[in-house]
Amino acid sequence: MNRVSAAALPVWFWVFVAYLFLPLFVMAAMGFRDSNFIAFPIHQWTARWYGEVLADAEILSALWVSLQVAVYSMVIAVAVGLPMSFLVARTGGVTRALMITVIVLPAFLPVVVSAIAIRMFLGNLGLSTGVAAIAFGHAVGSVPFVVIMILTRLSAMSANMADAARNLGADDIIVMSRIVLPFLAPALFGAVMFCLLLSFEDFVRSFFLGGNDQTFPVLLYARLRFGFDPGLAAISTLVLIASTALGLYAERHIRRRNLGR
Amino acid sequence: MGVSGLAMTRLLVSARGFGPYRNAVDALARRPALRFALIAAIPVGWILIANLAPLVQMVAISFQDRYPVPPDEPTLWTLRHYAAFFDTPHYLSAFVRSFVFATLATLLTLIVVFPVAYYLSKVAPKGRRIRLLLLVIAPFWISEIVRSFAWILMLANRGAVNSFLDLFGFPGLPLDLLYNNISLTIGVLYLTSLYMLLPLYAALEKIDDSVLQAAADLGASPVKRLIRIVLPLSRDGIVGGCTLVFLLVIGLYAMPQLLGGPDDTLFAATIGQVFSRAGDAWPLGSAFSMILIGVALGYVGLFALLFRSRVPRGSA
Fold this sequence. Notes:
The structure holds two protein chains of two kinds.
Chain A: H1 2-30, H2 48-54, H3 57-90, H4 93-108, H5 111-124, H6 131-154, H7 159-167, H8 172-201, H9 204-209, H10 216-226, H11 230-259
Chain B: H1 2-15, H2 19-30, H3 32-62, H4 80-87, H5 89-123, H6 129-137, H7 144-155, H8 160-167, H9 181-206, H10 209-217, H11 222-233, H12 235-250, H13 254-259, H14 267-276, H15 282-307
Helix pairs in contact in B: 3-15, 4-15, 5-9, 5-12, 7-9, 9-12, 10-11, 12-15, 14-15
């Protein structure tokens, strides 16, 4: 029994890893198929799809929309999440529990519901769909994570640090910019990356809030419903590589910082 | 960082000699209420506008007879949109299907991912654990749409799986793998596994190896150790992971449309369809949203209440 289970666990693990990566490699391979249709096996290979999708104006504009939305929503989410964390850190007991509940609420709602509620709300204010609306929607989804990340780091900070600086004559702005923010830097870095990646991969909020502005996942969805060609596999592969690389870089960076190396 | 940081400090310190800056800072220091208001304004405003207002508005719309209300007509309040849900078998069945599917998907995710998390946190060589964890986390940042597409390529009639089986002269090809519950389950598991993995990993990592060693020394079989020690001690992780996964699946919108069968609409997609109809369907869609939120959160809350660890924190 012992020997069987000792072998079974690694096997299960690597089967799981294969399950995660096999479809991605298959997709990458499909991007090189020399044909207008998607099918296996691949007899002839070509790199032309990669060239074609990178010259496709619709895809490039969708990527540009995605990038804008990612940056705007990240800036909003961090600008809101940072003071929100300070506020929560000052409270305690029931107030704190209540505040955290309300703050993390968007993370627990079905995304479809949250996106539609925001759309109706913005519509009522006379605001239209588009990049700004998507950015707002993404920020609503990101703020809970930003607050949790910053609060976690903040709870590791000793109050003595700020007090010592104050005793030495530092005012609020110096304490904030020279003590608190540098201490929070790893959490802020993590929050920034998290917001960017979360926004970039989102479909539902972008779909309901975008109107005529299509982010990359929305465009891909529309094209997939229309038909498949190897070019879609090519561009998906490129996007996948970019976001995975960014995600892994962030993970490693944060882990290094946390280990104090 | 060091040099520019020092320059920055010098700049800030010299700014103290600057009258208006000094007055502002000192005025702030003397008025704790004002300081608090400055910190609180943005977050409180955000919570009201971004988290609460859209939801409150949605609740209100769900009880209105029509929305938007025509300018010269009074607002009529009604429960008829909630009644429509219970009166229409089509909606009701999509709702039930969603809950059954989400429950099964959550259980499946737990069963598949638990050994993975256990291997990563307890069995894998210590020096390699982080690298292996990163390996498994890597696909986390890929869009739901891209992942669905990748599985379409795997499972289509002329996809990778069928074409691979064809190499071995497998009979009865092509297998119908796509646009049914098989493809949807495989795709959903792909999406949910990491939401399950991280809480499980965090919980399992905390279990002291010596506890397991002691149980083994006292003659507990691996199965007994799993049931009596590992599962109870990782209960918080299990509850957390299941909650996350369930809420994720119950709200799935795009993947069921890309990978699932045409007749197996899930409730989130039903809500989306109601809203993309003419504008006067908004109250109906709002009522459906409220039903989904209410039942899903109640379900998850009940689950957490039943299974959360009864051992006080810290004594485990």
